[in-house]
Amino acid sequence: xxxxxxxxxxxxxxxxxxxxxxxKTKPIEMIQEAYDAGQRAxxxxxxxxxxDKFEKLPKDIEWHMIGHLQRNKVKYIAPFVHLxxxxxxxxxxAEVNKQAEKFNRVQKVLLQFHIAQESSKFGFSLxxxxxxxxxxxxxxxxxxxxxxxxxxxxxxxxTRQVREEFHDLKKIFDHLKTKHFSDATEFTTISMGMSxxxxxxxxxxxxxxRVGSAIFGSRN
Length: 220
Ligand SMILES: *Cc1c(COP(=O)(O)O)cnc(C)c1O
What we know:
The chain has helices at residues 2-12, 28-36, 47-56, 74-77, 90-102, 126-134, 136-140, 159-179, 198-203, 213-216, and strands spanning 18-22, 41-44, 62-65, 83-87, 107-113, 144-151, 189-191, 208-211. By secondary structure, the chain is an alpha/beta fold. Strand 2, helix 3 (47-56) and strand 3 (62-65) form a beta-alpha-beta unit.
């Protein structure tokens, strides 16, 4: 069933959109099943669970940290994590830079933006990001590479609102690309869209969708 779900979703994705299979809370066996069907990029939202799954599964998996990351947990994933989607504060990025330096890595990250109506969602505003990106602290970091932006839309059945929020994130990306990352060839990623809204996200310019329950079934 996992294989069928994967194939069906992939059939609907434009070629340039990468699928991250969100495997949080799901057992090793189910991830292996997706792996055997050809999937290589997986997303988790807890650092320790991610590190544990990294140990137990094939080493050519690309692991994505997609959720809110606490600074004291960065060290568990710093040696190997492929992309950290949820950079939502200067202090978190400073810690990621510090840990990446220890392992002689340049860590790929995305800046998370607050695009939803809900106050609980983490992330920068465009104004905060601009100020931060112009500052000395950001520009002195050697071990992080900002590859784009990430955001989550409001959890609502109002598709017009969801579309507007994704549209806002695309505008933020375009602004940063023009004003701050015009020379950065790696600044290409817009991570937006989940099981319930990835089709809207793609039509608004997403390049990376994070899909969990539509592949692995609902979580408890
Ligand atoms: C859980 C999660 C997803 C996937 O959610 P589904 O609705 O199961 O597709 C995507 N992004 C983030 C940040 C998540 O925490």
